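dumping this here before i forget
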Amino acid sequence: MRFDSRMLAAALAFTMACTVAARAADEKAPADKAKEKGNPMVILTTTMGDIKVELYPDKAPITVKNFLDYAKAGYYDGTTFHRVIPNFMVQGGGITPDMQDKTAGRMAAIKNESSNGLKNEVGTLAMARTSAPDSATSQFFINVANNEFLNKEKAQDKVGYAVFGKVVEGMDVVNKIVGVKTTSKGPHQNVPADPVIIKSVKVVEAK
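structure:
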């Protein structure tokens, strides 16, 4: 078959178009795969409503795995938000409605990942701990203010508190929890007068 100049030009144009399309497909593939993988999403079902949270395993792999291990084991079921302070945070995940420390099922403390670049801003989840940097186990808190003094850069102990997720739906529920009447119960202060119970924490989807 003979090719005249017009046929040759058309063939070259077609080849170039196919090359560009293939290149675009190759460049798009990683993004598509990342989107398919997504971040873990969980729903905290409480007696005051549902709170949907996105977790960040790329930034806090140890902390996210720890949280998901507790969730999948059902450890959080029946625990409470036992510490509620307006303009600060709500804390839960380790105390029962009768204000007992839940020891059954508790795992070893984890490494503090506060150097991950995530900030203690409104709606973020972070791990609660003692004065020892690597002492976090099951308890976590949701920031209801921009708590810069909890970030590594501003923390008095130069360590700070590790953020590992953020509320994407249900911040209105968090704010309702913040607004409950609190009291003191034994050694605990800022305790909701009527327990705010975490019924379950379930993995629901990837974003």
